[in-house]
Every structure is written in structure tokens, then in C-alpha cells.
Amino acid sequence: MAMTKPVLLEVSDLRTRFHTPEGTVFAVNGISFHVDEGETVAVVGESGCGKSVSMISLLKLIPTPPGDVYAGTVIYRGSDLLQKSEQEMEDIRGKEIAMIFQDPMTSLNPVLTVGRQISESLRVHLGHSHELAESRTVELLELVGIPDAARRVYDYPHQFSGGMRQRVMIAMALSCAPSLLIADEPTTALDVTIQAQIVELVARLRESLHMAVIWITHDLGVVAGMADRVIVMYAGFIVEEASVEDLYDSPSHPYTMALLGALPRVDRRRDQRLKSIPGSPPNLLVEPRGCPFAPRCDFVIEKCRQENPSLIQIGNSHSTACWVDVKTGAPR
Amino acid sequence: MSDSTALVEVQDLKKHFPVSRGIIFRSRVGLVRAVDGVSFSIQRGETLGMVGESGCGKTTVGRTMLGLYPATSGNVVIDGEDILHARGKDQLRIRRKAQIIFQDPYASLNPRWTVNSIVSEPMRVHKLFASDKERSERARELLRFVGLSPHLLNRFPHEFSGGQRQRIGIARALASDPLFIVCDEPISALDVSIQAQVVNLLEDLQDQFGLTFLFIAHDLSMVRHICDRVTVLYLGVMVELADRDELYENPLHPYTKALLSAVPIPDPRKDRARKRTILTGDVPSPINPPSGCRFHTRCPIAMDVCKKEVPEWREAAPKHWVACHAVTGG
């Protein structure tokens, strides 16, 4: 958590919407954040909060139409990714910024051997020869802990289990030693035991390869032991951002507090009912007016329904978007 | 283990699925031992948790004990009556006492049926009430119980969110006035904020109607929250069974210990500080499960005897059952 690390990625006011037959869906509504070199940032939120869409937007992978990244800048190592041509982006994706997805089965090509799929990026991005790419592929599979890698490069995705497929995806993402790895719920489909294996693997690789990681998840539990900083998203907005210790010690947005209250604890005896959040996440077809969490919020005041609060700094690297000071219940 | 006050008693339940090969000349080439001798009982009003990794057979236990899959062998007694071997009218009468809530709220509701038809179906099957009108009236009431507006009775499943659909599934399970409900991962497909809503609802309904639950889940934190006793399954057999806090605070089986240490704790300092036993590899195939103790291939403390002999299922501490050669005492 050294404060002196250079900034790797700086996103400002990123906005993405989708034009659908039902109307315009406002998926990402002006989010700003940064990632330092070698840092792990967790992006937490429920389905539909815009956490995946914002990451896909900054990689310029949003299908247009119907999607439309209509505002914002994404400064990566000094230049704006959103201004780059498709050809320039192809050099960045996979080589500089790599991504792994939730479902490893649908993101691997079922009719190509895993060796072929990993070596493809080595040949495209790094210009490796066939032989070199193949031996590097075996090294990569060994690095992510796949036993008997020299033989398994000739296997097809269906011959691997869920956890092993996710390792293959990680090997593929790491093939060009990226500076930033975006992991989109990589453990959601896996058992807790396999999840622990993958979390440990990513933490180990991050150390040895000096890579920054953005870890997208809906589970505040998973990221507690792993992230340096946490960003909480709701309805396409960032509602709270803090160092991992601050976020869990003193959550300052009612939504973050509610998410933590809704989590049962494996390490504690049960003392009370779970605190559930009433209602359901908002309909993004309506352009947001007021705070999007207001209809479900325990702390709501009149101002919340009129005006959407922007992020305000409340501590060293801790900001929240709320009109109310949740500690006192008084308006800020 | 036998207990006369138990509502549900499962004895040596087995479910094997044949594996076939060939299109024209089909031949049996193997046997998946999905459930291979499971015994437990559940007291009236109790919630028993059943946990394990995917493929350990926990869903198959839930379905087989209700007769949704024909059992290979074993007995299941619910409220004093044999549910697996009853036929005809008796079968229908006994099955009314036991219902199930499924994992996937999208796949378990017929998209062409209205909520009314879905929730009334168990009442039609069991010939409760004299007319459709009365059944609709009861369906309306059930919707209120599960926190949905009765006005939604004529809507179709696609008009509801995941959490609301799961509420419809719960209303359907309640429709036949059951004593016992198998909850097969009822919340794992839902968002975190909605999970708590559904769990609180299940607890309220249990209090209100005196229901008995088998709660199948892979989320060990939620199981600690909702269950009174917990059993751990591995490759179709039970490896440990104990009261909730005893199991979580004093786990005896190395598999239970590994499972618990893999569960993340939403507290950065605590999560970083604790020791982890990270299991290597995946669950072996249930077609040819490992000899002796089935866990020996991944066990951090496996001994020679574990490869040869199946460990005995015994009470190592009062009400704390375990199957492991390394556990002493009892």
C-alpha cells in the first residue's frame, strides 16, 4: 500500500449506455478511479451494477451498436485508450491488459487444444516461432499449477475440470506478462476449495510478475484478504471507495453497510437475523434522478430523492457518495 | 442413530447411475456411485445442513430421499411412513408431507404457466379444496405468506426477478401443507442482498408452520447461520455430522477443516492472519472412487491404513460423528 507507486490506469467520468428496443439502459454513469502499478483493486457490486460493463468499456470491447461509450477518458500509461484505433487496441489487449472471465468453458474454444489457444497470443503479440511458443506454453501451464503440463497442452477444454480450465484461462492471460489483469468474477462458478486455490494462485503470480489486478466480484468475503483497495458500485455509480481495512472497519455508504450486514459469518456464532436489503436493484432504463439507492436506504432524507450525491473524500483515500454521515445519521 | 422422535429418517440410502456407451449396442461401462450409503435423521422443526463440493452427491441425496430419483437401495421414513416403497394412494398421501425448493429459480418454473397454475398445481395433484376458485384463493394467501402481492397471481414467471421467482417456488412448496422441505441450494443463484431476504423468509415460515428443513448448500457461512446441525458429504458418503457450533469450532475430519479454512472471512486482518489448508486437485471421479477412505488422495494427513480400510462412522464426541482413521477419542 505504498503511496508512491506510479499510477497505471486512470479512468475519469466513464459513461456507457445501451440503446435497446425498450429504451436506453444507463449501465455506467460517470465513474472515475485509478489503479496503481502492482496494486489489487476489487470492484464489488450486485449483478447489473455495471462492474463488468465498465471494464469491458475501458478495453473498447463494447459492441457498438447497441452499446455506446459516450463520455470519459481512460488514461493508460499516459495515453487515452478510448481515442485509440481498433488496431492499436489489439496490441494492448492481451499484451498490456489481459482479462479473465467468470465462465471458463464459454471463453475457451472447444475445438482447439488449450496449447494452441495459449500459444496464439504468444505468436501474435510477441512474434514467437512455433517451437518457442510451444515451450513457453508448457512453462505457463506449469506456472499456474497444471500437473503434467507437457502432455496436457494437447488436451481440449472439455478434458479439464472447472478449476483447471480457470487455470488455463489465467495462463492465457499471463502469456504476454501483462501489466494489468482484469479478473471478472473468476471464482464465482467454482467451489470454495477451488476458489481458495485460484485466489492464492493470482496473489502469488501478482507478486512474481509485478502485475496490477482488478478483481470484479459480488462477494465482499473473497476480496477481504486479497485486495489493497475496494470500489463499491451500485446502479452504474461508484458509491464508496476505500482501502480494504477502512472499508471493512468503517463502511460509510449505507449500501456497503447493508451488503456487509447481509453476509453471514463462518467465524462467528449466530447472534441475530441477517439484515436484508428491502426491495431490488433499480431499473436502469430510467435515467437516474436522485440517489439510486434512496428507495432501499435506511438513512434516506429528502435531499436524497432530489439530488444524486457525488463522491466526497471523508478520509485518507476513503470516499463515499452519500448525503448522510452514517455514523451520526446527520446530513453532511 | 435411530431416533423415534425424528420426523425424517434416512437409512443407508444409495443411488447409483449407470454409465452407458454406444448408440445402437448400448452397454453399461460403469457406475456412478453418486450416493453410496448415507444415513441420518432430522428432528421435528430442525434444520439439517448438508455441505460439500460439487459432485459430492448432496443434490442427489435430496432428490432421491423424496423419490424424485428411484433409489438404488435404502429406506427413507417421513413422519413414520416409508416414502420410497409406498405405491398408489399411499404414495401420494405420504409425498404430500415432503416438498422441495429447487436451486435454479429460472429452470424450475414452467414459463407457460401463470403463477396461479404453478402454485395451485400441488393442490390439484393432492385434490385439496373442492374447486379451482378455492385453490386460487389459497394461492393468493400463499403469495402473501412469501411476501408477494396477491395481485401478481395471473402473471407469468418471466415477469419476475430471480428473488421473486424463488418466492414463487417457496409458495409452491408450501401449497400441499408439507411437514418437511428439502431446500436444494435455494439461494446460490441469487444476489447477496436478495439471499438474506430469502433466508429470513425461510426462517419465518419455519417458525410459523413448524417446518423441518434439509438445507443443501455449498455456502458454509450461510449454513452456519441457518442450520441447527450440519453434515459434510464427500463423494457420496458422509464424513462428519455435528451440531452447528461444534462442527464449525471443533471440526474433526481433515476434509471439513479444509472446507472451513477455504471460506473467506469478510474481515481483512482476520482473513490474512489465519492458516489455510488448501486442498490440491479436484474431487476424484465417483465412477471409481478411491479405495479405503475416499478422501485419502487429497488428505494432508493420509496414512497407509487410509488407502486400505474404509474408516468407521463413529461418535468421537457426544453427538459428534466422524469417519476418519486419524481421529482419536470417542
Rounded mean pLDDT of chain A is 88
Number of helices of chain A: 12
Strand percent estimate of chain B: 15-25%
Beta-strand segment tally of chain A? 14
> Could you report the average pLDDT of chain B, rounded to the nearest whole number?
91
The run of helices and strands of chain B is EEEHEEHEHHHEHEHEEHHHHEE
Largest beta sheet of chain A: what is the strand line-up?
6-7-8-3-9-10-12-11
With strands numbered from the N-terminus, the spatial order across the biggest sheet of chain B is 6-7-8-3-9-10-12-11
Helix content of chain A: 25-40%
State the distance separating the first and last CA atoms of chain B: 15 Å
Listing every helix as H and every strand as E from the N terminus to the C terminus, the arrangement of chain A reads: EEEHEEHEHHHHHEHEHEEHHHEEEE
Write up this protein.
The complex is a heterodimer of chains A (332) and B (330). Chain A is of the alpha/beta class. Chain A contains twelve helices and 14 strands. Chain A has an eight-stranded mixed β-sheet, sandwiched between helices. In chain A, helix 8 links the parallel strand 7 (180-184) and strand 8 (212-217). The longest helix of chain A is centred in the middle third of the chain and has 18 residues, at 192-209. Chain A is globular. The mean pLDDT of chain A is 88. Chain B contains eleven helices and twelve strands. Chain B has a domain at 1-21 and 28-42 and 52-88 and 182-189 and 217-330: P-loop containing nucleotide triphosphate hydrolases (Rossmann fold). In chain B, helix 3 crosses helix 4, helix 3 (115-125) runs parallel beside helix 5 (162-174) and helix 5 (162-174) runs parallel beside helix 6 (192-209). Chain B has 330 residues and is α/β, with parallel strands linked by helices. Chain B starts with 5 loop residues before the first strand and ends in an 8-residue tail after the last strand. In chain B, the strands form two sheets. In chain B, strands 6-7-8-3-9-10-12-11 form an eight-stranded mixed β-sheet, with helices on both faces. A four-stranded antiparallel β-sheet of chain B has the order 2-1-4-5. At the A-B interface, helix 7, helix 8, helix 9, helix 10 and helix 11 of A face helix 6, helix 7, helix 8, helix 9 and helix 10 of B.
